[in-house]
Design brief:
heterodimer; A: 447 residues; mainly beta; Rossmann fold; Neuraminidase; 2 domains; 6-stranded mixed β-sheet; 4-stranded antiparallel β-sheet; 6 helices; 15% helix; B: 286 residues; mainly alpha; Fusion Protein Consisting Of Minor Coat Protein, Glycine Rich Linker, Tola, And A His Tag, Chain: A, Domain 2; 3-stranded antiparallel β-sheet; 3 strands
Chain lengths: 447, 286
């Protein structure tokens, strides 16, 4: 007791100087893409020969790593480093990377992997390493048929993207679009589908009838689109797997601008008659049709919110075409676009926070986004003619099409697909074998 | 006898004369009242409300003339004088209000105009004697001017006192920061600039979520990091906190990439433990 008192007295007499913890706020950083190294996936000689026979590729390990590299690069969020600078061989890197070697070339993350041929199947294992923390942060393995090798590359890309950004990827997806050929006055339009990177392009229709505005359903198995039936534009439904198609509903007038509801059970579309058009839904199970809007104006381009509770559409009820939102039963219609110009083709983001749109102002077309209350409008890209934005499944990238001006001889016209991310800086041409328009992005296939 | 009486009286008279001539009150000129006297006079009048005396009137007139001369010697622009009169009159008109609210702020233009019209009425010769009018104007002018000046001086004093007080507070705070909690601004800037360059912000993060990663560092005197600790570590592995995890990992990478940190050369005890708050919202939103 006495001792304690003495210590206490001593402490009181000689107080220790206490230092509060110094806090430093870091509110800025480097916005350049994250540098990462994608090492070619290692492969044993026997497997390499087997795969060469099946998929006609010299080294499937390198091919898969190239797919991953390209995907991550196009996202604009990563900067895959040049393979020539790599110091460690893929076989060794996959077992235990020498982190000093990778940090020397400024890589902050490293992807390694291994491909094997087992029981006529392709087995791919890959690892994601945090170079600076010198640890493995993800390891996965897939087994599939060899012909799916491209998808394996896309799935690895998605996993890496998700692990490093926190949001789902969008690489294992497909894009359906209208492939266009021939002179502008006599365009042959076919439905086509391809992987998001432009590979595996296939035509779904023959081009005898005009097709427009194809849209995926949430499972990406069905497509709804506009084509002509008895010389009238009508909404169609196509099963991609079976190839069967049918006309949606039997309306006395023109139906157009179809889109699936988030649960895939309904199609929402416009129905035009006597110079006005309204929005309708049709239940795909019982074929019951509901009228959603009833206004003497032209209401079209409906798009559901991801939770299915609201619908965005454009209408000229205020005199000019503007974007409105309403409840899914058609009540509480509210105008949300108030900027200068004409607004159209609203598409609700899969995240639910933004609405993408096309804007026409002073002869220029813009693709932009605004919040669901109409505030925070941001125009991402401007051009002579562009429209029909469609969201990537993670709500980060938009795909749309852009037409070029025809010269005085009526030549030079082209229609191409472009993608742009929400920053507005990462704009890229999506390569297609023919001219293309009206793209629609599928949901993630590997979900 | 007579002769001596005469001589004595002559000498006495001479002495009286010399004395009389050498007396200071006779030698001095009449008092020349400087303007400062009028200030005193007015202050007294204002406070005691003594009625205007006819003698004082004459004196004030004299002072007024002198002042006018002085003014003409200093030759201020005519416009300035006009505005001065305007403001004087305007304040005068609001004197009653001033009595109620001594801290009155300078009047807006509207009031000035209003008062001008009143002044015109006052200048009407049918109603007011010219002399009296002038005097009263002067009186008002002096009263108001001085009153205003006095107020302004008082206010200025109070304000300057406040500023000094505030300044003192700031200095004390700064001292305290330097002593106990903070790095100096230049030290902090150097550290920030270094980490800004190392931190690759994950661009896919949402800008509207509250993502603040606090990392505690243990440092060596040379700035190398011996230990890092994420203060909200529990959040890292919670479901639905993927964005937080990504941000936290990126912040850790930044710290590792930046090693050794640019720390001050002195005061190791002060900064051997350091907390970095990584907040990307500003960047992601912009």
């Amino acid at each position: 007791m006495k001792k304690k008192l003495i210590i206490l007295l001593l402490l009181l007499i000689f107080p220790l100087k206490a230092f509060a913890l110094i806090e430093v706020d870091i509110t800025r950083g480097n916005l350049s893409p994250l540098p990462l190294a994608v090492s070619p996936l290692s492969i044993d000689e026997q497997s390499r020969i087997e795969f060469k026979k099946i998929i006609k590729k010299e080294n499937i390990g390198s091919e898969i790593s190239v797919i991953v590299e390209n995907n991550l690069k196009t996202s604009g969020l990563f900067n895959p480093l040049n393979k020539d600078a790599f110091l460690q061989a893929p076989e060794i890197a996959n077992l235990k990377p020498r982190f000093e070697d990778w940090s020397l070339i400024k890589a902050q993350a490293l992807i390694t992997g291994k491909v094997t041929f087992i029981n006529e199947k392709l087995r791919v294992e890959f690892r994601l390493w945090d170079v600076l923390a010198a640890k493995e942060i993800m390891a996965l393995a897939f087994t599939t048929v060899p012909n799916n090798w491209r998808r394996v590359g896309h799935i690895i890309s998605d996993k890496v993207y998700e692990r490093l950004t926190g949001e789902k990827g969008y690489f294992d997806t497909r894009i359906i679009y209208v492939a266009e050929e021939g002179p502008k006055t006599q365009r042959k339009k076919r439905l086509a589908i391809m992987d998001q990177d432009g590979a595996n392009n296939k035509f779904l229709t023959l081009g005898n009838e005009l097709v427009l505005t194809p849209r995926f359903n949430p499972t990406s198995q069905m497509v709804t689109y506009l084509s002509y039936f008895k010389n009238l534009p009508r909404v169609y439904l196509l099963d991609i797997e079976t190839g069967t198609q049918e006309v949606v509903g039997d309306f006395p007038g023109m139906t157009f601008a179809p889109r699936f509801s988030p649960d895939g059970k309904k199609i929402i579309m416009s129905f035009a008659k006597d110079g006005k058009s309204d929005i309708y839904t049709m239940d795909l199970e019982n074929r019951i049709v509901d009228r959603i809007t009833n206004h003497p104006s032209i209401d079209t381009s409906p798009s559901y919110s991801p939770n299915g509770k609201f619908i965005a559409f454009n209408s000229d009820r205020s005199g000019y075409q503007q974007i409105y939102i309403m409840k899914s039963d058609g009540s509480e219609v509210k105008r949300i676009s108030f900027g200068n110009g004409i607004y159209g083709t609203p598409v609700w983001s899969p995240r639910g926070d933004l609405i993408a749109f096309t804007k026409l102002h002073k002869g220029k077309f813009y693709i932009g986004v605004m919040r669901t209350d109409g505030k925070g409008e941001r125009l991402l890209t401007e051009n002579y003619y562009q429209e029909a934005p469609s969201w990537s499944p993670n709500g980060r990238v938009l795909i749309f099409y852009r037409e070029t001006k025809t010269n005085s001889d009526g030549e030079g016209f082209s229609a191409k697909l472009w993608s742009i991310d929400l920053t507005g800086y990462n704009e890229r041409l999506v390569t297609t074998p023919t001219d293309a328009s009206d793209p629609s992005w599928s949901s993630l296939l590997s979900n | 006898m007579n002769r001596s009486i005469i001589i004595s009286s002559v000498f006495h008279l001479l002495l009286i004369f010399i004395t009389a001539m050498s007396l200071p009150f006779l030698a001095k000129k009449p008092l020349d009242i400087p303007p400062i006297i009028s200030v005193e006079l007015i202050q007294i009048t204002e406070k005691t409300n003594i009625p205007f005396a006819p003698k004082a009137k004459k004196i004030i007139e004299k002072i007024k003339e002198k002042e006018k001369k002085l003014v003409s010697e200093q030759a201020p622009p005519k416009k300035v004088e006009k505005t001065k009169t305007k403001t004087v009159v305007s304040v005068d008109d609001n004197e009653r209000d001033d009595n109620k609210t001594p801290e009155a702020v300078p009047l807006p233009e509207k009031t000035v105009k209003k008062i001008e019209t009143k002044k015109e009425k006052k200048q009407n010769p049918d109603k007011l004697d010219e002399e009296v009018k002038q005097v009263s104007e002067f009186e008002k002018k002096e009263f108001v001017d001085l009153d205003n000046i006095a107020k302004l001086i008082d206010k200025a004093k109070i304000e300057s006192a406040d500023v000094i007080k505030k300044n003192n507070d700031i200095t004390q705070d700064q001292d305290r920061n330097i002593d106990n909690t903070g790095l100096t601004l230049s030290e902090e800037d150097a550290l920030k600039a270094q980490i800004f360059g190392c931190w690759s912000i994950p661009l896919g993060l949402p800008y509207n979520e509250n993502l603040l990663v606090r990392i505690k560092l243990m440092l060596e005197p040379d700035g190398s990091v011996t230990k890092t600790e994420i203060l909200d570590h529990a959040r890292m592995n919670k479901p639905g906190q993927g964005f937080y995890k990504v941000l936290a990992e990126s912040a850790l990478r930044a710290v590792k990439l930046c090693q050794p940190l640019r720390v001050p050369t002195t005061g190791y005890e002060r900064w051997k433990e350091l907390q970095l708050n990584f907040d990307a919202r500003e960047m992601l939103e912009g």
